[in-house]
Structures are given as C-alpha cells and as structure tokens.
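Lecture 7 notes: from sequence to structure.

We start with a single chain of 288 residues. Read the sequence below before looking at the structure.
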Amino acid sequence: MSSPQKVFPGTLRDAADRGRKIAMVTAYDAPSARLADRAGVDAILVGDSAAMAVLGLDSTVGVTMDEMLVLTRAVSRGARRPLLVADLPFGAYQVSNRDAVKNAIRFVRDAGADAIKVEGAGTTIRRAAAIVAAGVPVMGHLGLTPQTATMLGGYHPQGRTATSATRLLEDARTLETAGCLAVVLEAVPAEVAARVTDALRIPTIGIGSGAHCDGQVLVWHDLLGLTAGHLPRFVKQYAQLGDQIVAAIEAYVADVRAATFPGDAHTYRMFSGELPVFQDAINERSDT
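Now the structure, written as tokens:
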C-alpha cells in the first residue's frame, strides 16, 4: 500500500475546488506533529500562539524568531505529509520587505517549513508579495489578528459592520492578488466569511468564522482540553486530556510514595553469576 502523498499549497486549492473541507491544526513539537500526521490533517500551523500555549506568555507578541524556528524545526521532524506552515512572529516582517524575505527564507531553509503565515493587510500586502516573489509560499490572516489585537481594541470579532466587512473582503482580494496560497479568517461573522470565501479563488481557513470557509484550524491545546482558563466560544474540545494527565501523574506520585513503583517489570538485573563477583570485589576493597 502506498503512503499518503505530501500536501503542497496547490493540494489545498484542489481540495477546496472539489468541495472537500481542509483540516488544519497547530502543533509545536515533534510528538504532536507525528500524531497530527497520523490523524490525517491536511496542514499543520506552527502558530505564534505557542507564546501562550507552550511558553507561558500573555500574548503572541513576545515570541521570538529563534523560538519559532526551534518549534518549527521540531514539528518538521515529526510531520512528513501535511503542509507545514510557520507563523512569522511580530517584528519579523513589519519593518521592510528585505527583513520579511530574509526571515521567511530562514523558516524554509533552516526549519523545514513549506510556507509561512503573515497577519493583516496594509503594508503586509507588500510583504506577502515580496516573499512570494522570493519563492516562499505565503498564507494570509485577516479578521482578528492577535499580533495587532491592541490596535483592534482587544480580542474581539472583526467585520461586524458593513464598512469593516467590506474592507475585510477587499483586503482578502488583495492578499489573493499578492499571491497568497490561502487566507485564515479569524473571528469573522459567518455571513461575512461566506461572502469572502465565495469571492476568492484561493481557500479560506476559518477559526471562529463559521462553517462556510473552505477549512478550519484549531489550536492543539484547545481542542484536546489542555488549555487552562477561558476559551473562545469558537473552540470545540474533543477531549479532556488535561484531566487525564493530572490523574496519571497523581497515580505515579502515589505509587512512588507507596514504593510500589518501580516493580520487577521495570527493573534491570545483572547478568547471571555476576552478583557474587561484584560482592567479592566489594568485600576485598573493604578489607584493605
């Protein structure tokens, strides 16, 4: 039986054209990437959401290029088939086209990414076009853009007025013209996301933007029940692994304290006949 084929940017567009929904998850390490690959996802995003999910920061803004490169490199070792998309962190592409291209190339050359993702429109359009021109596929991201959430007035849905919805649609079209392979729509009203999806030839990947998008993405820790505290309303938890992990570690702690672990099944033994020789050697040393 032949192994599943590698997913490329064009694969996502072909899937959308056929009406097959695209499934994307975030991942931040090799074991998670291997499991996502086995589960059959189409794409993995090494999101700057790692800042909160694994690094303990309060927002995505604090994660660095070096940290994102380490995480992307780890994910690339674990997942072979899905399209691997890496977030360019805040500050890695905002200053100039030159910086944007240089940093995007690092993710492909040094970390094994297939594509990168950038947030917003405005100057980001020029950055996206420059990166695509340099030969690196780009995924856009509109709606709630966490890197600029402060400018948006916080983590709130976007495109709820006719004016902002029209602007979002035009931004999406401009990202498509710039050469983006797909656009993430985050926290956008479902009817607006549907209109954007219908208007574009490239796929839309929704997160909190309704079912009409060409695909969906969720954060690994959110969907598996590993996130502590408040969750956005668009998150569906498919498991409660956090509770299972705590229960497993509690059982381990109890076994250690009761001296029931490790048992014989978890213990190594010396080769046959070696223990008396070892004991004799110790006795000889103690006699001198």
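The first strand starts at residue 22 and ends at 26. Keep this in mind for problem set 3.
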